[in-house]
Amino acid sequence: MREVKVLGLLGTGVIGGGWAARALHLGIDVLAMDTRPEMEAWIRGAVENARGALSRLTLAPLPPEGRLSFTTDLEAMARAADFIQENIPEQLELKQRILAQASRAAPADVVIASSTSGLLPTDLQRQMTAPERLLVGHPFNPVYLLPLVELVGGQRTSPAALDAAERFYREIGMHPLRVRREIPGHLTDRLQEALWREILHLVNDGVASTGELDDAIIYGPGLRWAGMGTNLIYHLAGGETGMRHMLRQFGPCLKWPWTRLEAPELTDTLIDRMVEGTQAQAKGRSIRELERLRDEYLLAIQQVLKQFDLGAGATLRGLEERLYERSGRNASAGVDAALAAGTAAPARMLDTYVRPEWIDYNGHMTDSRYLQVFGDATDALLRWAGVDDAYRKTGRAVYTLESHVTHIAEAKALEPLYVTTQMLELDAKRLRLRHCLYRRRDETLIATARQLYVHVDTRARRAAPFEPQVHARLERLALAHAALPQS
Ligand SMILES: NC(=O)c1ccc[n+]([C@@H]2O[C@H](COP(=O)([O-])OP(=O)(O)OC[C@H]3O[C@@H](n4cnc5c(N)ncnc54)[C@H](O)[C@@H]3O)[C@@H](O)[C@H]2O)c1
User: Fold this and answer.
1) Residue 378: CB within 6 Å of ligand 1?
2) Where are the alpha helices (DSSP H) in 73-187?
3) Which end of the chain has fewer CB atoms within 10 angstroms, the N or the C?
């Protein structure tokens, strides 16, 4: 299975648009295909709408944004894509026909994943050429912010295709959940439907309004679910003996039973109650406004969960670690090569560009982003020396003590930039660096920074010497830079 540089999208509605925004943000080119030419404007709008939220997902250094292109030619898309994600309407025969057509044009090592909410992969792959690369990759709306993707193989799906899909989805910041056996509705929609069925019954029986039922979730269980799900939370509800006690105490209720298995009939009265109820809850806010509000709190929740390394927050942390690692890897190769060749020049530690959201009201890169860019260059240098996530988990880290930034010229949106870094001073616990930020277009120096860092024992909360192997690497660089001018 191949490395994914171009993601092909088959169908560019709500879900196709979400895949596009996520992939482009993480540096993957997207070739979107839809039968309706007007969907080009739609998908470009969807990507633009997602940009605000996505830009606040992480401060980690991102690769250059991917390029979006659009076609109505299915075969052209299938021939050019490295991975195809199908997002056409949920109709088995339509999906079977279109997937078969795509599979005849796509090389056999291109994984084809379906976003289907509930169809079985064995049914989807029936008419395909090389059916072993078909699997379900079921995402959740908004795809650009929610990391979950359910991975389901059919009878003919190869483990290699599932592995390749898992790698790709992780690369774009998702949490692939392997479903052991294909069942209609996979896992999550089975759970969601059970809850929704009860909601429909309770509204139908006149027991509660849609708003009251949403309150029943958002003030209680919903807050617990994001971090621990249902089962682990019930384990806690059983007191010291956990789940065993919980089942002994509440298990018998399951026989009464409180809930119903059959959904109620969707009568006009029930449909009206559901529609009027949710319209009242919306309080005049448009779908767009509500989407923005949803995106804002989904972002905030993930940032909070990140601090606890829980659920979607742990996924975000994993993505950030990979982004820092990727950015550090190129820099490290450059430093090693320069040291081996005995070249004494400041090391090129970061290549980046001015992301549109970094611009202030003057149309230039705003002040705080300079510190972010210099911080990323320091991070790359420290990673080269061995200060990475594993090192930090042992209770040691490097903190900033002082930053002095000098602005010389300006940078506009989308300008490619790079940072070179010079070691000015090193002792057992401290490190002083000088960064230079250049505009790649004309090699103009646009800012410099002098920064002082201290190595700390984060548990004792005080300065501590660098570990010997880290210090030895930093010292090699300090020696190589000793002859360079200091300003
Ligand atoms: N909406 C959700 O919340 C959600 C969540 C997860 C998964 N899904 C699944 O994703 C898939 C798409 O759902 P959606 O909500 O994005 O639907 P949608 O109606 O918004 O988009 C479907 C798109 O497919 C296009 N299309 C139709 N026939 C086509 C063809 N032959 N070739 C190319 N394009 C074609 C349509 O023009 C449309 O743009 C479904 O299988 C659905 O079950 C939806």
Assistant:
1) no
2) 74-80, 92-105, 121-124, 159-171
3) C
- Per residue in 227-278, pLDDT (tens digit) is 999 999 989 988 888 988 888 888 888 887 777 778 899 999 999 999 999 9
Mention every residue, 6+ apart, whose C-beta is less than 8 A from residue 238: 244, 245, 246, 247, 249
CB 6 within 8 A of CB 80: yes
Q: Using a 6 Å cutoff on CB, does residue 13 contact ligand 1? A: yes
Assign 99 a pLDDT band (cuts: 50, 70, 90). very high
Q: What is the dihedral of CA 126, 150, 282, 199, to 10 degrees?
A: 80
Tell how far CA 35 is from the center of its chain. 28
CB 162 within 8 A of CB 178: yes
Residue 138 has pLDDT above 80, yes or no: yes
As a whole number of angstroms, the distance between CA 60 and CA 230 comes to 32
Q: Is the CB of 115 under 6 A from ligand 1?
A: yes
How open is the CA angle 365-354-418, to the nearest 5 degrees? 105
**DSSP code string of 375-430:** HHHHHHHHHHHT-SHHHHHTTEEEEEEEEEEEE-S---TT-EEEEEEEEEEE-SSE
Structure confidence at residue 384 (pLDDT): 94
Name the DSSP letter for residue 366: -
12 Cβ inside 6 Å of ligand 1: yes
Which residue puts its alpha carbon closest to atom 39 of ligand 1? 13
Q: Select from 63, 72, 52 the least CA-distant residue to 9.
A: 72
Tell me the torsion sign for CA atoms 463, 465, 466, 467: negative
Which residue, by CA, sits nearest to atom 18 of ligand 1? 13
Instruction: Decide: 88 in ligand 1 pocket, CB within 6 A.
Output: yes
Q: pTM for the whole thing?
A: 0.90
Task: Evaluate if residue 345 carries a pLDDT over 90.
Answer: no
pLDDT at 65: 92
How many whole angstroms from 207 Cα to the centroid of ligand 1?
34
Lowest mean pLDDT of 320-324, 344-348, 370-374, name the range.
344-348
Q: Relative to the CA of 88, which ligand 1 atom is closest?
A: 24
> What pairs with residue 9 in β-bridges?
32, 85
Paired tokens of 188? 């999550």
Among residues 185, 146, 182, 147, the alpha carbon closest in space to that of 162 is found at 182
Whether the bond into 142 is cis, omega within 30 of 0:
yes
- Span from the CA of 116 to the centroid of ligand 1 (angstroms): 9
